[in-house]
Amino acid sequence: MTTILTIIDRFSKACHLIPLRKLPSALQTAQLLVRHVLRLHGIPQEVLSDRGPQFVSRVWREFAVALGARYTLTSGYHPQTNGQTERLNQELETALRCLTSQNPTDWSKFLPWVEYAHNSHVSSATGLSPFEVSLGYQPPLLPEDNSRITVPSVKDHITRCKQYWNQTIQALKNTAETNRRFADRRRVPAPSYHPGQRVWLSTRDLPSRAASKKLSPRFTGPYEIISIVSPTTVRLRLPSHSRVHPTFHVSQIKPVVSSSLCPPAEPPPPAQVHHGRRIQRIGTSRRRGKGFQYLVDWVG
């Protein structure tokens, strides 16, 4: 086992951790979703994922359409969009490090216990455990705790479930409002963009072969906005040789501003990004550390 498929419920914060031998294809991911999620919780209303090759394929897109679920992807170089999964991965790594530090090859054996512990732990966002939110009660940790659980009537059980759900809804709203208030302290409203507008693109997260990252241009472009995906996400018209996904968060761009008082400035030189250009010849090579460096003459 080399890979973990992490699935988390946005409402209850319950998770499913699925060990895999390798990265699954789009069809295998859809089958895993049916086997481990749909048969237990029903068809989801929305599926949010990162931009892995499994989730940008046509197979996965058609699978989401067939389910009738809204299909969304994280914006480029903005992991906060899928922050719940990122936070769960941090907790998962910490737990596995404590359990398997002596024998790391047995990590997959402890994965069910990590999942059980997470779903039993009280979430700071809801004030309840994922088990309480989704099931209406806290299951016992060990068999000797069964004496503490009393079997309620059906009416009492449904009433308690509704109470937990109402508490969870209110707690999620309060947590979201608190997080938004703290995050907005240093945020400024993004400019209003429209299709056809030209913008600069930040080179902070773009792959670059520049000799000095500090002295390379901070922005590249300008590029044209093709469409407005959401109020915080835009799609740019990138060069055909670019290997970067064209969807970006508004924090990664800024509008091109021109003034009538001075002529428009020349655009900065493009970042030295290697996009699969052809090599005309290799001049020489030298050993550097554990590898080699080559003096390359590119075509053109």
UniProtKB/TrEMBL annotation:
PROSITE patterns the UniProt entry points to: INTEGRASE
GO molecular function, one term: nucleic acid binding
Pfam families registered for this protein in UniProt: rve, SH3_Tf2-1
Domain of life of the organism encoding this protein: Eukaryota
Domain Integrase catalytic as annotated: residue spans: 1-138
Listed transmembrane segments: none
Gene Ontology BP, a term: DNA integration
SUPFAM superfamilies (UniProt xref): Chromo domain-like, Ribonuclease H-like
InterPro entries named in the record: Chromo-like_dom_sf, Integrase_cat-core, Retrovirus_Pol_polyprotein, RNaseH-like_sf, RNaseH_sf, SH3_Tf2-1
PANTHER family: INTEGRASE CATALYTIC DOMAIN-CONTAINING PROTEIN, PROTEIN CBG26694
Protein name: Integrase catalytic domain-containing protein
Organism: Fundulus heteroclitus
